Amino acid sequence: MPVAPERPRSLMSRPRTWGLWLLGVLLLVFVVLVPMDVPQQSLFSAVLFAAGLALLRSGNSLAVLVMMGISLVVSSRYIWWRLTETLAFGDPFEFTLAIGLVLADVYYFVAMTLGYFQSMWPLKRKPVPLPADQGEWPSVDVFIPTYNESLEVVRTTVLAASVIDWPADKLNIYLLDDGRRAEFRDFCAAVGVHYVTRSDNAHAKAGNINAALKKSSGDYVAVFDCDHIPTRSFLQVAMGLFLRDEKLAVVQTPHYFFSADPFERNLDTYGKVPNEGELFYGLLQDGNDQWDATFFCGSCTVIKRKPLEEVGGVAVETVTEDAHTALKLHRRGYHSAYLAVPQAAGLATESLSGHVAQRIRWARGMAQIMRIDNPLAGKGLQLAQRLCYFNAMLHFFYSLPRMIYLTAPLAFLFFGAQVIHASATMILAYAIPHLFQSALTNLRVQGRHRHLLWNEVYETALAWYILRPTLMAVINPKLGKFNVTPKGGLVERSYFDRQIAKPYLFLLFLNLAGVVAGILRLFQVEDAGAINTIWVNLGWTFYNMLLLGATIATASETRQVRRSHRVPLDIPANLYLPDGRVLACRTRDFSTGGMAVRLQDKEPVEPGMPLHIGLSHRGLERLLPALVRHDRNGTISLQFSAMTMEQERWLVASTFARADIWLSQWGQRQQNSFWKSVPQVLGASMYGFGCLGRHIVDSARQGFRPARAVDERSGG
Fold it and tell me: Looking at the annotation, which residues are catalytic?
C-alpha cells in the first residue's frame, strides 16, 4: 500500500511545532526591542558570537537550529536599529539614498531568514528498492530534447540512455530534435531509438517535450538535457519512490558537471571551491524536500505522466518552464521528492558570456513566475511550500541590492551624504555582529557546499546583467524569450572579455575614485567622529574593490581547446598488443576520444602502435580499438580509433554510465573555514587586477583597437 514519505516527527507534529514557533517569535521580539548603548550592544554580540563559535564544530542538528536562532537575534536587532534609528527625513538626496540602502538590508535579511527556514532540517531521503518482480515495474519514456547542439555532444547521452538498466519492453528512448536534422535521424536509426520532431519550435524546450508527450505513452517520463549523460542505475534509483507514494509526481536528482564552469576555469578553482550550483543541489533542494517543495529542474528528472498531463504538460507561460511546472503540480496537491544521489553528469557552460546568458534566463523566468503565478497567492500550497518557492524567486532579485552595496559608501566619500545617520562606533557595533554572526552560521550550515565570500563574487559578476531582465519581467512578464545554453564549445585562445567586463571596470573606477576622495577628506576634517566615518566608508570601499577584482578575473577567459573532457576513473583493464601480448593495467582517466592507463608491469609501448583495450561491464570484457599516443614511464595515453556503434555503446556503458564515478566525487568537499576563503578570494582579486593590467598594456600596444572576435564554436 503506498504511503507518504517519512519526515522527522518534530517537524510534522503541528501543535508542538506551532507552539515552539510562537514561543520563539515572542522571545525574539523581546530581545530585539531591548535598547542598548555601544558597550552593551558590543558585549551582547560578543557573547552570542562566542556561543556560535562553541557550537560551530558540533555534529548535532540541534546546534544548527540554535546557531540560526542566534543569528536571527543579532540580525533582527540590526534591522530594527536600521529602521528606527538611522533614517533622517531632512535632505531629500540623503533620504533617497538612505531608503535604498535600508531596503537592500531588509532584502538580505528576509532572504537570510527564508534561507534558514529552507535549510533548517534537510530530509536526506534515501532511494526505495523496487519490487523483485520486474513485471511490477512501470513503463518509462526517456526524453532527450535538443535544438542546435552538435551530434558530438548529443550522441553520448543517447548511447548512455540506451544502456539504462530497465526492462527493454518497458523503456522507450526519444530524441526530440527541434533542429530537424537528417544526421540526427540517421543516428537514431543506427542506435535504435525513436526520433521525434515537429513542424515548428513553439515554446522552445517546453513545447518540444509537450509535443513528444502526444507521441508516447509510458507511465513515466524521464527528461535529460542533451549533454546530461544518465547512468545505468538512474531509473532503479529513482523509480522506487513512485511505487511508495501514489501522489508523488516528480523525482529530481542533482545536476552534476564533469567540466569546469567559467568561474572554476578562469579562477582555477575547479575541485577546490564549490561551484555556484553546489549549494542548491547539495543543500537547498534537500531542504526543500523536507517541506515537499522540491523543484523540477528540467533535467535528470522523472515525472509521472498522468499528473503532468493533468496540469497541461510542461508550463509554457515562462522561460523557467521546469520550476513553473513543479509549482503547478504542487498546487494540485501532488508531491515531489529529491534524491541527493548524482545519477547523471553533464557539461557546464564554457564562457562567462554563455554562463551569464543562462542566468539571465533563470532570473527572468523566476521573475515571470512571481508576476503571473505568485506562490504567496492562489490555492493549493502549504505555507512552507509558499515560503520555499518565494525564496527561490526572491533570490534572483539580488542584483539591485548588490549594486547598491557596491556604490553606497561613495555617497559619503564623494558628497559627504549621510546614508546611515549614526556614529561610526554605533554602525560597527550593530553591522559587524550582524555580518559576522550570519557568516558563522552559514559556515556551519553551508560549509561543504558554499565557501565564504564566494557567493559575493558570484552575485557581483551577475548583478549588472540580471538587473534589467528581472525588473522588466515584473513589469511585463511577456518580454524575453527562451535561449539555449551553449554547451560543448571551445575557447581557442586566452583573452580578456572586456565587453562583458565593462560594468565591473566602471564600478572599479568609481570605487577607486572614491578611495582618492576619501583620502583627501581625511586631510580636510578634524572632528574625530567624521574621521571614523571616513575610515568606515573607506573600509567598505576596499572590500568592494576586493570583490570587483575577483569578478574581473572571471572575465579573463582561459583556453579551453579540449573537445572531450577527461574524467578520473580507476578500474582494471587490459591492453591487447598486435604481437599477442596482453598487458594488465588500470585506467587513470577517460573521455569520448581517449583514455590514459597505468601499466602494472612497465613494458615499453611504441607511440603510434595500434592495439585494443579491454573494458569490462557486467563481468564481460569487450575490446575497443585504440592508438598509442605516447608512453611516459608506464603511463600510456590512448586515442580511440573508429568504432562500431556497439563498441561505442560498450565504451559509454563501462565509463560515463557508471554511477560510482560521480558518487565518488559528489559531496566530498572539506568543511570551509574563514582562513581558507579569505586568502582564496584575495588571491583571485589580485589575479584579476593582474589580468586587467596586462590587458591595458596589450591594448596600449595595439593602439586600443577593438578586440577581434573570439572563435568559439558552440554545440548549441
Answer: 178, 322
